[in-house]
Amino acid sequence: MKIAIVGSGLGGLLAGAILSRKHQITIYEKLPFIGGRFTNIEMEGFQLTTGALHMIPHGSRGYLAKALKLAGANVKIIDSKPDGTFLIGGKEYLYKELFSLLGVREKLKALKMATNLKIGNFDKDMSFGEFLEDVDLALKVGNSFTGWALSLSAYDVKMEEIYEIAKNYYKFGGPGVPIGGCKGVIDELERIILSRGGKIIKEYEVKKIEIDEKAYVDGEEFDKVISNISPKETERISNIKFLDKKIEEAKGIKISIASKRGLIKHSGVLFTPECERINGLNQVTNVDKSLAPEGYHLIMTHQAQITNNIKKEIDLGLEDIENLFKGIDYKILHIQSYRDGIPVNHAKSGIYIENIVNDKLLLVGDGAKGKGGIEVEGIAMGVLKVVNHIGY
Ligand SMILES: Cc1cc2nc3c(=O)[nH]c(=O)nc-3n(C[C@H](O)[C@H](O)[C@H](O)COP(=O)(O)OP(=O)(O)OC[C@H]3O[C@@H](n4cnc5c(N)ncnc54)[C@H](O)[C@@H]3O)c2cc1C
């Protein structure tokens, strides 16, 4: 079949690489580079990124790893050990150790919450924040997790989605870092698509998708169109209406930092529940030294955008960083904020959009993630659904 893919983000390239085994693929990308919000930008010898923090939520065992294998991609993902630690009162704790910080009553409440989450015993319409708010530390920890992983406050995520996320976590475990960072993944997908005769057309902005007897991209005929741009934007440039709900974006701020000494000892996430704004940080050079010049570490912080006063949000993030790095030399390399058309996620986690609009128009990307799929894992879930529908 002749298949067009609009957008060369992770979702588009992943779908293209899998489908290129059997189909004729043409990918259109409006920018001069591919990978969207999942590729590297070099700055002063550091491999910063267009978006992601060089982390794959379920490492070598999750949906993205599975989809990469299906595509025939040779990407090495190093699983984080431990998954993460929580910085409380200047000391780091593993998740299980957090219970020891609570008094008897609160510990009982927290253990009950953990059990209820595992067995799904809660009102599915309740928010994660409401579920946790009886225990102050649990709410702070929950907020740092949702802020880091979903760019949302705990009050912004429904328990239905948290339950699905938890199930995936029990099944696959925590994050990992791909060697070469995000671009390591993108380069491999590009290699596969081109080696199988697929075409990637850069600096071409698609203006119109038409679905009729056939599918058309700016007048050119295809059997199917896969859209890797946001669902809202897809609807705007297409001749069919398919969205029946309000879609809100998840917004966030990332700060990239250089430091010779580094701040984190492990390859997982350092969650910071006591910070004013920063939800967590990672130090990817603990896994892949090539992501920074020799002798340096690359550290990336992430924070959900809480208010629309961006300057204030950034200032609060920088104050947190100043406190976290007390006594350690560091340099801010870059501050990036993600909102208004280039958000962290086109649809907040917990907003479910069907990938298969109809037999000729299909959606991939972070506007149409699978249930419980954190970030690129959710994108991979959507891609797997689409490629299984089409056949490869
Ligand atoms: C700060 C930040 C941190 C993050 N951290 C992580 C992380 O650590 N781990 C993780 O798993 N995820 C993370 N994410 C999320 C992840 O980066 C994104 O969800 C993912 O990269 C989005 O991929 P996508 O397939 O939706 O495509 P996009 O990245 O949205 O790519 C879409 C492409 O389509 C192109 N395009 C748009 N319109 C047109 C058009 N009309 N014609 C042609 N081309 C068009 C765009 O130029 C773009 O290249 C993070 C995101 C941000 C912003």
Automatic annotation (TrEMBL):
Which InterPro entries did the record assign?
A: FAD/NAD-bd_sf
Source domain of life is Archaea
Supply the Gene3D superfamilies for this chain.
3.90.660.50, FAD/NAD(P)-binding domain
- Name the PANTHER family for this protein: PHYTOENE DESATURASE (PTHR43734:SF1)
Protein name from the UniProt record: Uncharacterized protein
Species per Swiss-Prot/TrEMBL record: Methanocaldococcus infernus (strain DSM 11812 / JCM 15783 / ME)
